[in-house]
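Issue: ligand-bound run for DLL - logging full I/O for the record.

Environment: standard queue, default settings, no custom constraints.

Inputs:
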Amino acid sequence: MIWDVRNECMSADEREALQVRRLQAMLGRVKAVVPFYTKLLADVEPQDIKSLDDLHKLPFTTKDDLRNYYPYGMFAVPMEDVVRVHSSSGTTGKPTVVGYTRNDIRLWAETIARTLCGLGAVRGDILHNAYGYGMFTGGLGLHYGGELLGVTVLPMSGGNTKRQIMIMQDFGSTLLSCTPSYALRLAEVAEEEGVDIRALPVRSGSLGAEPWSESMREEIEERLGIKAYNIYGLSEVIGPGVSFECEVQDGAHVNEDHFIPEVIDPDTGEVLPDGEYGELVFTCVTKECLPLVRYRTRDICSLNHEPCPCGRTTCRMSMVTGRTDDMLIVRGVNVFPSQIEQVLVSFPELEPHYQIVVDRAGTLDELEVHVEVAPDYFADRVGELETLRSRVAEEIQSVLDISVDVRLAEPQSIARSEGKAQRVIDKRDFNK
Ligand code: DLL
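Outputs:
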Protein backbone atom coordinates (compact mmCIF):
# COMPACT_ATOMS: atom_id res chain seq x y z
CA MET A 1 0.00 0.00 0.00
CA ILE A 2 1.10 3.56 -0.66
CA TRP A 3 0.33 5.95 2.21
CA ASP A 4 0.02 9.21 0.29
CA VAL A 5 -0.64 8.45 -3.37
CA ARG A 6 -1.07 12.10 -4.25
CA ASN A 7 2.36 13.14 -3.03
CA GLU A 8 4.32 9.96 -3.61
CA CYS A 9 3.13 9.29 -7.15
CA MET A 10 2.88 12.73 -8.79
CA SER A 11 4.46 13.44 -12.17
CA ALA A 12 7.98 14.85 -12.27
CA ASP A 13 6.76 18.24 -13.53
CA GLU A 14 4.07 18.55 -10.94
CA ARG A 15 6.52 17.65 -8.18
CA GLU A 16 9.13 20.11 -9.36
CA ALA A 17 6.56 22.91 -9.41
CA LEU A 18 5.58 22.03 -5.84
CA GLN A 19 9.19 21.85 -4.68
CA VAL A 20 10.13 25.17 -6.25
CA ARG A 21 7.10 26.91 -4.78
CA ARG A 22 7.92 25.55 -1.34
CA LEU A 23 11.60 26.31 -1.74
CA GLN A 24 10.97 29.95 -2.60
CA ALA A 25 8.67 30.37 0.38
CA MET A 26 11.18 28.72 2.72
CA LEU A 27 14.07 30.86 1.47
CA GLY A 28 12.07 34.05 1.93
CA ARG A 29 11.14 33.07 5.45
CA VAL A 30 14.56 31.99 6.72
CA LYS A 31 16.22 34.97 5.14
CA ALA A 32 13.85 37.25 7.01
CA VAL A 33 13.99 35.62 10.43
CA VAL A 34 17.27 33.72 10.91
CA PRO A 35 20.31 36.03 11.11
CA PHE A 36 22.56 33.23 9.85
CA TYR A 37 20.53 33.01 6.63
CA THR A 38 20.12 36.77 6.28
CA LYS A 39 23.87 36.86 5.85
CA LEU A 40 24.30 33.60 3.93
CA LEU A 41 21.58 34.43 1.40
CA ALA A 42 22.37 38.14 1.08
CA ASP A 43 22.89 37.81 -2.68
CA VAL A 44 20.03 35.42 -3.35
CA GLU A 45 16.49 36.45 -4.16
CA PRO A 46 14.06 33.56 -3.63
CA GLN A 47 12.37 34.38 -6.98
CA ASP A 48 15.68 33.74 -8.75
CA ILE A 49 15.26 30.04 -8.01
CA LYS A 50 12.89 29.20 -10.85
CA SER A 51 13.59 25.49 -11.25
CA LEU A 52 15.54 22.75 -9.53
CA ASP A 53 18.40 23.47 -11.91
CA ASP A 54 18.82 26.74 -10.04
CA LEU A 55 19.36 24.95 -6.74
CA HIS A 56 23.10 24.94 -7.27
CA LYS A 57 23.08 28.74 -7.00
CA LEU A 58 22.42 28.38 -3.28
CA PRO A 59 25.28 28.02 -0.79
CA PHE A 60 25.79 24.84 1.24
CA THR A 61 25.25 24.49 4.98
CA THR A 62 27.13 22.07 7.23
CA LYS A 63 27.16 20.55 10.68
CA ASP A 64 29.63 23.26 11.69
CA ASP A 65 26.95 25.89 11.10
CA LEU A 66 24.65 24.09 13.52
CA ARG A 67 27.52 23.83 15.99
CA ASN A 68 28.34 27.53 15.68
CA TYR A 69 24.72 28.44 16.43
CA TYR A 70 24.37 25.86 19.21
CA PRO A 71 21.85 25.17 20.56
CA TYR A 72 18.90 27.09 19.07
CA GLY A 73 20.46 29.76 16.88
CA MET A 74 19.32 28.27 13.57
CA PHE A 75 15.69 27.80 14.62
CA ALA A 76 13.32 29.74 12.38
CA VAL A 77 10.45 30.00 14.88
CA PRO A 78 10.20 31.45 18.41
CA MET A 79 10.74 28.94 21.24
CA GLU A 80 7.02 29.17 22.14
CA ASP A 81 6.34 27.28 18.93
CA VAL A 82 8.90 24.55 19.51
CA VAL A 83 7.24 21.48 20.99
CA ARG A 84 10.14 19.01 20.81
CA VAL A 85 13.92 19.02 20.74
CA HIS A 86 16.17 16.09 19.78
CA SER A 87 19.90 15.91 19.42
CA SER A 88 22.47 13.64 17.94
CA SER A 89 25.57 12.86 19.90
CA GLY A 90 28.28 12.68 17.27
CA THR A 91 31.73 11.50 18.18
CA THR A 92 33.25 14.78 19.28
CA GLY A 93 32.16 17.88 21.12
CA LYS A 94 28.70 19.28 21.56
CA PRO A 95 25.64 17.54 20.18
CA THR A 96 23.75 18.75 17.13
CA VAL A 97 20.43 20.17 18.29
CA VAL A 98 17.24 20.03 16.24
CA GLY A 99 13.74 21.32 16.97
CA TYR A 100 10.19 20.62 15.83
CA THR A 101 6.97 22.60 15.82
CA ARG A 102 3.64 20.85 16.15
CA ASN A 103 3.38 20.81 12.34
CA ASP A 104 6.90 19.40 12.05
CA ILE A 105 5.93 16.52 14.34
CA ARG A 106 2.88 15.89 12.16
CA LEU A 107 4.97 15.99 9.00
CA TRP A 108 7.48 13.60 10.58
CA ALA A 109 4.74 11.12 11.48
CA GLU A 110 3.52 11.32 7.85
CA THR A 111 6.96 10.49 6.50
CA ILE A 112 7.19 7.49 8.85
CA ALA A 113 3.70 6.30 7.92
CA ARG A 114 4.95 6.32 4.31
CA THR A 115 8.03 4.41 5.45
CA LEU A 116 6.06 1.72 7.23
CA CYS A 117 3.66 1.35 4.31
CA GLY A 118 6.72 0.82 2.13
CA LEU A 119 7.48 -2.39 3.99
CA GLY A 120 3.89 -3.55 3.95
CA ALA A 121 2.68 -2.47 7.41
CA VAL A 122 -1.08 -2.50 7.92
CA ARG A 123 -3.40 -1.89 10.85
CA GLY A 124 -3.29 -4.91 13.09
CA ASP A 125 0.49 -5.15 12.81
CA ILE A 126 2.50 -5.03 16.02
CA LEU A 127 5.61 -2.89 15.70
CA HIS A 128 8.45 -3.89 18.01
CA ASN A 129 10.29 -0.60 18.13
CA ALA A 130 13.79 -1.24 19.48
CA TYR A 131 15.29 2.05 18.35
CA GLY A 132 16.44 4.06 21.36
CA TYR A 133 13.92 6.45 22.88
CA GLY A 134 15.25 9.73 24.18
CA MET A 135 17.23 12.44 22.46
CA PHE A 136 17.96 10.03 19.56
CA THR A 137 15.31 10.44 16.86
CA GLY A 138 14.87 6.71 16.11
CA GLY A 139 12.53 5.68 18.93
CA LEU A 140 10.03 8.53 18.97
CA GLY A 141 10.26 8.97 15.19
CA LEU A 142 9.05 5.45 14.43
CA HIS A 143 6.62 5.65 17.35
CA TYR A 144 4.54 8.57 16.13
CA GLY A 145 4.51 7.34 12.54
CA GLY A 146 3.40 3.90 13.65
CA GLU A 147 0.53 5.38 15.64
CA LEU A 148 -0.51 7.60 12.74
CA LEU A 149 -0.63 4.59 10.43
CA GLY A 150 -2.57 2.70 13.08
CA VAL A 151 -0.25 -0.19 13.90
CA THR A 152 0.19 -1.21 17.54
CA VAL A 153 3.47 0.24 18.75
CA LEU A 154 5.59 -1.50 21.41
CA PRO A 155 7.92 1.25 22.68
CA MET A 156 10.73 -1.16 23.54
CA SER A 157 13.72 1.15 23.12
CA GLY A 158 17.15 -0.55 23.07
CA GLY A 159 18.71 -2.89 25.61
CA ASN A 160 17.78 -5.86 27.74
CA THR A 161 17.96 -8.16 24.77
CA LYS A 162 16.64 -11.30 26.49
CA ARG A 163 13.54 -9.42 27.51
CA GLN A 164 13.12 -8.13 23.96
CA ILE A 165 13.07 -11.74 22.76
CA MET A 166 10.52 -12.70 25.38
CA ILE A 167 8.24 -9.78 24.48
CA MET A 168 8.64 -10.54 20.80
CA GLN A 169 7.39 -14.08 21.48
CA ASP A 170 4.64 -13.23 23.95
CA PHE A 171 3.25 -10.03 22.39
CA GLY A 172 3.27 -11.38 18.84
CA SER A 173 5.42 -8.66 17.23
CA THR A 174 5.05 -8.69 13.45
CA LEU A 175 7.36 -5.79 12.53
CA LEU A 176 10.76 -4.95 13.95
CA SER A 177 12.55 -1.63 13.92
CA CYS A 178 16.15 -1.30 15.11
CA THR A 179 19.67 -0.90 13.76
CA PRO A 180 20.92 -3.71 11.47
CA SER A 181 23.60 -4.62 14.01
CA TYR A 182 21.02 -4.92 16.76
CA ALA A 183 18.85 -7.14 14.55
CA LEU A 184 21.77 -9.56 14.39
CA ARG A 185 22.26 -9.27 18.13
CA LEU A 186 18.62 -10.24 18.64
CA ALA A 187 19.17 -13.32 16.44
CA GLU A 188 22.23 -14.24 18.43
CA VAL A 189 20.60 -13.93 21.84
CA ALA A 190 17.53 -15.82 20.60
CA GLU A 191 19.83 -18.68 19.60
CA GLU A 192 21.48 -18.65 23.02
CA GLU A 193 18.08 -18.75 24.66
CA GLY A 194 16.99 -21.65 22.50
CA VAL A 195 14.33 -19.55 20.76
CA ASP A 196 13.78 -20.12 17.05
CA ILE A 197 13.49 -16.48 16.03
CA ARG A 198 12.76 -17.47 12.43
CA ALA A 199 9.56 -19.15 13.54
CA LEU A 200 8.21 -16.02 15.28
CA PRO A 201 5.57 -13.90 13.48
CA VAL A 202 7.97 -11.00 12.79
CA ARG A 203 7.98 -10.64 9.00
CA SER A 204 9.67 -7.31 8.18
CA GLY A 205 12.26 -5.03 9.66
CA SER A 206 12.74 -1.29 9.14
CA LEU A 207 16.46 -1.09 9.68
CA GLY A 208 18.76 1.88 9.53
CA ALA A 209 20.63 4.55 11.50
CA GLU A 210 23.98 3.05 10.52
CA PRO A 211 25.64 1.91 7.31
CA TRP A 212 25.00 -1.64 6.17
CA SER A 213 25.40 -3.61 2.97
CA GLU A 214 23.52 -5.99 0.70
CA SER A 215 25.44 -8.91 2.16
CA MET A 216 24.50 -7.82 5.67
CA ARG A 217 20.89 -7.67 4.47
CA GLU A 218 21.09 -11.29 3.26
CA GLU A 219 22.53 -12.37 6.57
CA ILE A 220 19.77 -10.63 8.55
CA GLU A 221 17.01 -11.95 6.31
CA GLU A 222 18.37 -15.46 6.64
CA ARG A 223 18.98 -15.43 10.38
CA LEU A 224 15.78 -13.71 11.44
CA GLY A 225 13.56 -15.08 8.71
CA ILE A 226 12.31 -11.58 7.82
CA LYS A 227 12.46 -9.14 4.93
CA ALA A 228 14.92 -6.42 5.88
CA TYR A 229 14.17 -2.93 4.56
CA ASN A 230 16.58 -0.05 4.60
CA ILE A 231 15.33 3.18 6.14
CA TYR A 232 17.49 6.26 6.16
CA GLY A 233 17.47 9.60 7.87
CA LEU A 234 19.41 12.06 9.94
CA SER A 235 18.37 14.28 12.82
CA GLU A 236 19.26 17.51 11.06
CA VAL A 237 16.82 16.77 8.21
CA ILE A 238 14.08 15.25 10.41
CA GLY A 239 15.32 11.90 11.80
CA PRO A 240 14.18 8.60 10.28
CA GLY A 241 11.62 9.21 7.51
CA VAL A 242 13.92 10.88 4.99
CA SER A 243 13.88 7.85 2.71
CA PHE A 244 12.68 4.24 2.80
CA GLU A 245 12.62 1.12 0.68
CA CYS A 246 9.46 -0.28 -0.87
CA GLU A 247 8.78 -3.96 -1.59
CA VAL A 248 11.10 -3.77 -4.61
CA GLN A 249 14.06 -3.18 -2.25
CA ASP A 250 16.01 -1.40 -4.95
CA GLY A 251 16.89 1.97 -3.48
CA ALA A 252 15.19 4.05 -0.80
CA HIS A 253 12.43 6.44 -1.92
CA VAL A 254 13.23 9.97 -0.80
CA ASN A 255 10.30 11.99 0.55
CA GLU A 256 11.33 14.66 -1.87
CA ASP A 257 8.23 16.81 -1.63
CA HIS A 258 9.76 17.71 1.76
CA PHE A 259 13.48 17.05 1.39
CA ILE A 260 15.09 17.83 -1.96
CA PRO A 261 18.11 15.57 -2.52
CA GLU A 262 21.24 16.23 -4.54
CA VAL A 263 24.48 14.28 -4.85
CA ILE A 264 27.61 16.38 -5.18
CA ASP A 265 31.30 15.85 -5.68
CA PRO A 266 32.54 16.36 -2.10
CA ASP A 267 35.71 18.08 -3.30
CA THR A 268 34.36 20.48 -5.91
CA GLY A 269 30.73 20.85 -4.78
CA GLU A 270 29.56 20.14 -8.33
CA VAL A 271 26.22 18.35 -8.72
CA LEU A 272 26.63 14.79 -10.02
CA PRO A 273 24.26 12.96 -12.38
CA ASP A 274 22.15 9.92 -11.44
CA GLY A 275 24.18 6.80 -10.77
CA GLU A 276 27.34 8.58 -9.70
CA TYR A 277 28.39 8.28 -6.09
CA GLY A 278 29.06 11.41 -4.09
CA GLU A 279 27.96 13.31 -1.01
CA LEU A 280 24.26 13.51 -0.35
CA VAL A 281 22.83 17.00 0.21
CA PHE A 282 19.32 17.91 1.37
CA THR A 283 17.23 21.05 1.29
CA CYS A 284 14.26 20.90 3.68
CA VAL A 285 11.45 22.92 2.17
CA THR A 286 8.53 22.33 4.53
CA LYS A 287 9.88 22.19 8.04
CA GLU A 288 9.03 25.16 10.20
CA CYS A 289 11.56 25.01 13.02
CA LEU A 290 14.72 23.96 11.25
CA PRO A 291 14.58 24.23 7.48
CA LEU A 292 18.03 23.64 6.04
CA VAL A 293 19.47 24.91 2.78
CA ARG A 294 21.66 22.43 0.86
CA TYR A 295 22.77 20.64 4.00
CA ARG A 296 25.82 18.42 3.44
CA THR A 297 25.15 15.07 5.09
CA ARG A 298 28.65 13.61 4.50
CA ASP A 299 26.90 10.37 3.54
CA ILE A 300 27.99 8.84 0.27
CA CYS A 301 25.42 7.38 -2.10
CA SER A 302 23.93 7.78 -5.59
CA LEU A 303 20.47 8.80 -6.80
CA ASN A 304 18.12 7.20 -9.32
CA HIS A 305 15.18 9.11 -10.85
CA GLU A 306 13.88 6.17 -12.93
CA PRO A 307 10.28 5.28 -12.10
CA CYS A 308 9.96 2.37 -9.67
CA PRO A 309 7.72 -0.65 -10.39
CA CYS A 310 5.95 0.01 -7.05
CA GLY A 311 4.24 3.06 -8.54
CA ARG A 312 5.97 5.72 -6.46
CA THR A 313 7.63 8.37 -8.58
CA THR A 314 9.95 9.75 -5.91
CA CYS A 315 13.64 9.39 -6.61
CA ARG A 316 15.57 6.61 -4.91
CA MET A 317 18.90 6.67 -3.15
CA SER A 318 21.30 3.74 -3.04
CA MET A 319 22.53 2.21 0.19
CA VAL A 320 24.97 4.58 1.89
CA THR A 321 28.42 3.20 1.13
CA GLY A 322 30.30 5.33 3.63
CA ARG A 323 30.78 8.84 4.87
CA THR A 324 33.13 11.47 3.58
CA ASP A 325 34.46 11.73 7.13
CA ASP A 326 34.43 7.96 7.72
CA MET A 327 36.80 7.25 4.94
CA LEU A 328 40.06 6.14 6.44
CA ILE A 329 43.25 7.01 4.70
CA VAL A 330 45.64 4.22 5.50
CA ARG A 331 49.10 4.55 4.04
CA GLY A 332 47.64 6.93 1.49
CA VAL A 333 44.94 4.51 0.36
CA ASN A 334 41.27 5.36 0.78
CA VAL A 335 39.55 2.67 2.81
CA PHE A 336 35.85 2.48 3.47
CA PRO A 337 34.73 0.24 6.33
CA SER A 338 31.98 -1.07 4.03
CA GLN A 339 34.58 -2.62 1.72
CA ILE A 340 35.97 -4.62 4.60
CA GLU A 341 32.52 -5.58 5.80
CA GLN A 342 31.64 -7.01 2.42
CA VAL A 343 34.62 -9.32 2.47
CA LEU A 344 33.94 -10.47 6.04
CA VAL A 345 30.29 -11.21 5.40
CA SER A 346 31.22 -13.35 2.39
CA PHE A 347 32.96 -15.88 4.70
CA PRO A 348 30.46 -18.32 6.25
CA GLU A 349 33.09 -19.20 8.86
CA LEU A 350 32.88 -15.67 10.29
CA GLU A 351 30.26 -13.76 12.21
CA PRO A 352 29.36 -10.22 11.11
CA HIS A 353 30.78 -8.80 14.34
CA TYR A 354 33.95 -6.91 13.65
CA GLN A 355 36.04 -3.90 14.49
CA ILE A 356 38.58 -2.07 12.39
CA VAL A 357 41.53 -0.66 14.30
CA VAL A 358 43.98 1.77 12.74
CA ASP A 359 47.15 2.66 14.53
CA ARG A 360 50.49 4.15 13.63
CA ALA A 361 53.71 2.36 14.44
CA GLY A 362 56.41 4.97 13.93
CA THR A 363 55.52 6.51 10.62
CA LEU A 364 53.62 3.61 9.17
CA ASP A 365 49.84 3.14 9.49
CA GLU A 366 48.70 -0.28 10.54
CA LEU A 367 45.32 -1.68 9.73
CA GLU A 368 43.92 -4.41 11.93
CA VAL A 369 40.63 -6.16 11.40
CA HIS A 370 39.23 -8.02 14.40
CA VAL A 371 36.45 -10.41 13.47
CA GLU A 372 34.63 -13.15 15.32
CA VAL A 373 34.69 -16.74 14.16
CA ALA A 374 31.34 -18.55 14.02
CA PRO A 375 30.87 -20.63 17.21
CA ASP A 376 30.55 -24.02 15.42
CA TYR A 377 33.58 -23.45 13.32
CA PHE A 378 35.57 -22.26 16.30
CA ALA A 379 34.81 -25.40 18.29
CA ASP A 380 35.42 -27.90 15.48
CA ARG A 381 38.32 -26.57 13.47
CA VAL A 382 40.78 -24.89 15.75
CA GLY A 383 43.60 -26.34 13.67
CA GLU A 384 42.36 -24.59 10.54
CA LEU A 385 42.07 -21.11 12.01
CA GLU A 386 45.43 -19.99 10.68
CA THR A 387 44.45 -20.95 7.14
CA LEU A 388 41.17 -19.10 7.54
CA ARG A 389 42.98 -16.05 8.88
CA SER A 390 45.29 -15.83 5.91
CA ARG A 391 42.45 -16.39 3.42
CA VAL A 392 40.52 -13.48 4.95
CA ALA A 393 43.62 -11.29 4.99
CA GLU A 394 44.39 -12.10 1.35
CA GLU A 395 40.85 -11.31 0.28
CA ILE A 396 40.78 -7.95 2.08
CA GLN A 397 44.20 -7.18 0.71
CA SER A 398 43.08 -7.88 -2.84
CA VAL A 399 40.12 -5.49 -2.43
CA LEU A 400 41.99 -2.66 -0.69
CA ASP A 401 45.42 -3.12 -2.14
CA ILE A 402 47.15 -2.69 1.20
CA SER A 403 48.29 -5.22 3.74
CA VAL A 404 46.11 -5.92 6.70
CA ASP A 405 46.53 -7.77 9.95
CA VAL A 406 43.47 -9.97 10.51
CA ARG A 407 42.85 -11.12 14.08
CA LEU A 408 40.31 -13.87 14.53
CA ALA A 409 38.41 -13.37 17.73
CA GLU A 410 36.53 -15.87 19.86
CA PRO A 411 32.76 -15.96 19.56
CA GLN A 412 31.08 -13.21 21.64
CA SER A 413 34.32 -11.35 22.31
CA ILE A 414 33.65 -8.18 20.32
CA ALA A 415 31.46 -5.64 22.10
CA ARG A 416 27.82 -5.61 20.95
CA SER A 417 25.86 -2.42 20.64
CA GLU A 418 22.20 -1.77 21.26
CA GLY A 419 22.16 1.23 18.99
CA LYS A 420 24.71 2.19 16.40
CA ALA A 421 27.67 -0.17 16.22
CA GLN A 422 31.15 1.31 16.59
CA ARG A 423 33.07 -0.33 13.78
CA VAL A 424 36.15 1.83 13.52
CA ILE A 425 38.72 2.71 16.15
CA ASP A 426 41.30 5.13 14.85
CA LYS A 427 44.11 5.39 17.38
CA ARG A 428 46.29 7.65 15.26
CA ASP A 429 47.02 11.06 16.62
CA PHE A 430 46.96 13.43 13.68
CA ASN A 431 48.23 16.35 15.75
CA LYS A 432 51.63 14.80 16.26
O1 DLL B 1 20.23 7.81 12.73
C1 DLL B 1 18.05 8.71 12.21
C2 DLL B 1 17.54 7.33 11.98
C3 DLL B 1 16.94 6.65 13.02
C4 DLL B 1 17.59 6.77 10.71
C5 DLL B 1 16.43 5.40 12.79
C6 DLL B 1 17.08 5.52 10.47
C7 DLL B 1 16.50 4.84 11.52
P1 DLL B 1 21.35 10.51 13.39
O2 DLL B 1 21.59 9.90 14.74
O3 DLL B 1 21.38 11.98 13.26
O4 DLL B 1 19.94 10.08 12.84
O5 DLL B 1 22.42 9.85 12.42
C8 DLL B 1 22.38 10.13 11.05
O6 DLL B 1 23.28 7.96 10.50
O7 DLL B 1 23.95 10.77 8.43
C9 DLL B 1 24.07 8.33 8.33
O8 DLL B 1 25.46 8.49 8.42
C10 DLL B 1 23.63 7.28 9.32
N1 DLL B 1 22.46 6.54 8.79
C11 DLL B 1 21.17 6.70 9.11
N2 DLL B 1 20.41 5.81 8.41
C12 DLL B 1 21.26 5.09 7.64
C13 DLL B 1 21.11 4.04 6.70
C14 DLL B 1 19.51 8.78 12.62
N3 DLL B 1 19.93 3.49 6.42
C15 DLL B 1 23.44 9.37 10.32
N4 DLL B 1 22.22 3.59 6.07
C16 DLL B 1 23.36 9.57 8.83
C17 DLL B 1 23.44 4.12 6.33
C18 DLL B 1 22.57 5.58 7.87
N5 DLL B 1 23.64 5.09 7.22
